[in-house]
Amino acid sequence: MITRAECESLDDKDPLRAFRDEFRLPPGVVYLLGNSLGALPKRTPERVAHTVETEWGRDLTASWNKAGWWDLPQTTGDRIAPLIGAGPGQVIAGDSTSVNIFKAVSAALPLRPGRRVIVSDLDNFSTDRYVVEGIAKTMGYEVREIGWGEGAPGLDEALGDDVACVLLSHVDYRTGARHDMASVTARVHAAGAIMIWDLCHSAGAMPVDVGEADFAVGCTYKYLNGGPGAPAYLYVAPRHQEVVQNAICGWHGHAAPFAFEPYYRPAAGVRRFATGSPPVLAYAALNASLDIWERVDLERLREKSLALTSLFIELVDELAPASRSGLTLVTPRDPERRGSQVSYRHPEGYPIVRALADRGVIADYREPELVRFGFAALYLRHVDVYDAATALAEVIESEPWRDERYRQRLTVT
Ligand SMILES: Cc1ncc(COP(=O)(O)O)c(C=O)c1O
Ligand SMILES: Nc1c(O)cccc1C(=O)C[C@H](N)C(=O)O
């Protein structure tokens, strides 16, 4: 088995190692939830303070022009674009992922008149499913469900000439399993439907290429370190931009917002997907982290991410084998089919996560019975992986489920 010293020497050779210094990480903590809320970049507090004190405090409304507040959805979108294989003018930053899913799906449906089915993944993150459910109920569509699980209907079975659009997550939030985006998009297009991707668990974790996709959405508070509730984003393929309708057409997406016309005329391009006033302070935090992201070599990031997740799987195999620990790996062993997280099923998953936190290893729990470890390769080291695997094995040996403290559920799990 690899030693801690060997992990240290892998860290010394890590071409991305300098990035760790750009983040504030609490001492003594192994933070494995960059897939939920990314770590704070050291440069962010100063950038937000500048926006508060100078742009807001001194320049007041002049900052809409002078500090570029008005254009933040587009300028920030243009900075996110290279992280998902998109070009300038193709991405708009704003709202939450949920709202962008609504905008994307409701804009996709009229592109396929006469088709009344939305294909939705049973295993997708709750909000993706809820938004589709809401659209189907209010706009009169049918939802056709597919899933990753054994026996669940697959994509090819679901695709028919009645399908208007398909919404899938590139990387599954529970298992970390990854779709082949290009091949899925091609299959969906071959059936004449529109493809919408949720990139929450892949952008900033690996190179992503929207390719031929029609729409994509994602958040920036996970791997992209934009901060809690940071603006999300929406990609709209250039071929659709001048024909699609934003269902939440607000004045920020109007062609002449300061003409205050009584009727809506969409702005050109992706700007029509803007709706209301942007949360300027949140964009300041996000842009501080994008200063880091524009220097990241995403191919190297993916190499390191796979090295870390593979190392974790190997160590857990050795230190806490299924026969002894009760841990069942639910993440694909094949690196090609994996995102940047590793999840195990364990009947006592919740107390295990709470006991790990007491030892400074921060992971989370997801129903059903899943212990989830996210590996943000920009700031994690091989030694962190070693320490986390060791702590996991020790925690399970200590049977934390016997301790009532660890069974009590927190509001946010
Ligand atoms: C796949 C996926 N989609 C959407 C969301 C969240 O959407 P929102 O940004 O609206 O909270 C999450 C996580 O919070 C997610 O994992
Ligand atoms: N977005 C979150 C939130 O607002 C509160 C608590 C957690 C989150 C998360 O991001 C969870 C995450 N999407 C997940 O994969 O479970």
UniProtKB/TrEMBL annotation:
Belongs to the kynureninase family. It catalyses: L-kynurenine + H2O = anthranilate + L-alanine + H(+); 3-hydroxy-L-kynurenine + H2O = 3-hydroxyanthranilate + L-alanine + H(+). One of its GO terms (biological process) is L-tryptophan catabolic process to kynurenine. Its EC number is 3.7.1.3. This is Kynureninase. Pfam families: KYNU_C (PF22580). Catalyzes the cleavage of L-kynurenine (L-Kyn) and L-3-hydroxykynurenine (L-3OHKyn) into anthranilic acid (AA) and 3-hydroxyanthranilic acid (3-OHAA), respectively. The gene is kynU. Pyridoxal 5'-phosphate binds at residues 97-98, 198, 201, 221, 251. One of its GO terms (cellular component) is cytoplasm. It comes from the Bacteria. Pathway: Amino-acid degradation; L-kynurenine degradation; L-alanine and anthranilate from L-kynurenine: step 1/1; Cofactor biosynthesis; NAD(+) biosynthesis; quinolinate from L-kynurenine: step 2/3. The modification N6-(pyridoxal phosphate)lysine is found at residue 222. One of its GO terms (molecular function) is kynureninase activity. Keywords: Hydrolase, Pyridine nucleotide biosynthesis, Pyridoxal phosphate. Homodimer. InterPro entries: Kynureninase, PyrdxlP-dep_Trfase, PyrdxlP-dep_Trfase_major, PyrdxlP-dep_Trfase_small. It is an enzyme of class 3 (hydrolase). Its cofactor is pyridoxal 5'-phosphate.
